[in-house]
Amino acid sequence: MTIKELYDAKRMSAQQAVALIPDGAQIAAGLAVSFPPALAAALADRVRAGALRDATLYAMLAPAASAAAILAPDLADRIRRISLFHGGVERANDALSATESDPSSGPLAELLPVPFHQIPRALTEHIGVDSFITTVSPMDANGYFSLGTDTDYALAVARSGTRLVVEVNPAMPYVHGDCLIHVSDVAALVEHHVPLCQTPSLPRNATDDAIGAIIAAMVEDGACLQMGIGAVPDAVCAALMSHRRLGIHTELLSPGLVSLIQAGVVDNSAKSLHPGKSVFTFAMGDQPLYDFLHDNPTLDARPVEYVNAPHVIAQNDAMLSVNATLQLDLSGACNSEFVNGRQYSGTGGQLDFVRGAYASKGGRSIIACHATAAKGTISRIVPWLDGPVTTPRTDTHIIVTEFGSADMKGKSLADRARALIAIAHPAFRDDLERAARERRIL
């Protein structure tokens, strides 16, 4: 068969494609932008009709526009849903289940706690995913699809021998790097042309900008950047416009980082690993970001087990990672995923980059947060955490709030407490010092 004949032989409707997935299947879906809407809707119809039983679906940051059908609350007892990182859909469903009359009812989506760089191994080795659905770019002349916005765990799962069902969308950019799959490895393909889901940048406020300015002052020309999700990392990017020769090695390629590339601030000339290339594992944002990704030879998409591996991150000299947290205790431990008694996000790649950046020659890991939450009524720096430890106190390096920065390295517990109290909101400092003395830290 020619490449075109092979493509045509595997092309079918979404309903025909999901019919290939058997009862009891362990199904993984593409992350975020690559979550395939036509396949997800057809899968939901099949489950609702009782034609697919005892299946499990693994997803990460599933967007509402694409995933609402298969993650609908009424299907919770017919297909098991396991989240690798909660997004808005899981949070909304969790809030819904908490209001049910049955107080013993659990969450509609379970969480699998796992560092981002270990997800490929978890899916292929420990879970044994047998079906993978994802969105890809149109095929090139050599028979390859690009995974586009999402190489992350998709490449490892797609190459593991799983049943690979792809949704070919002309809106998905053709991205360069180690992110290609061949039509011969595809079990079925579905053509579906719809706009990609977009995630607008959160509006920044004065507190975000204050934190961004503090962090930007720590960045030297020639540093290599990783930025997390949210208004604070965006504020850091905005404050870096006067810098030069910066590089990028990041899990998420965001509009903020792209703005630095387009302004000439990032040229990757000083990078010790993959010089000249901006390395990332997934991208999420607006249409200009997706346009920038398409056929751009300066970008290098690679799988997350490589990009997020701490020993790989550490090969970038002057690595600087910036991530946000929800809550810090007085020893420097971070809860970055749990709020108000519920799972809010997930483990993600925070600890991957905290460890990798600190191990870099001249590297620094920064955890940033507003000093308060709930319109100033709650301190984010607390005597003890309300949720799980996402980043242990032994790993945290520099903590930044709008009131300054605190370096945790080389400090005793008492010294850490004093440093963190000094960057807490003034309204809570006395209470924090009192709590530290009650806990015999001070």
TrEMBL record:
Record bears the keyword Transferase: yes
Domain of life of the organism encoding this protein: Bacteria
InterPro entries found in the cross-reference section: AcetylCoA_hyd_C (IPR026888), AcetylCoA_hyd_C_sf (IPR038460), ActCoA_hydro (IPR046433), ActCoA_hydro_N (IPR003702), NagB/RpiA_transferase-like (IPR037171)
Keyword annotations of the record: Transferase
Stretches assigned to the Acetyl-CoA hydrolase/transferase N-terminal domain: 7-193
Every Acetyl-CoA hydrolase/transferase C-terminal domain range: 285-436
UniProt-listed Gene3D superfamilies: 4-hydroxybutyrate coenzyme like domains, Acetyl-CoA hydrolase/transferase C-terminal domain, Glutaconate Coenzyme A-transferase
UniProt keyword Transferase, yes or no: yes
PANTHER family noted in UniProt: ACETYL-COA HYDROLASE, ACETYL-COA HYDROLASE-RELATED
Family affiliation: Belongs to the acetyl-CoA hydrolase/transferase family.
Protein name per the record: 4-hydroxybutyrate CoA-transferase
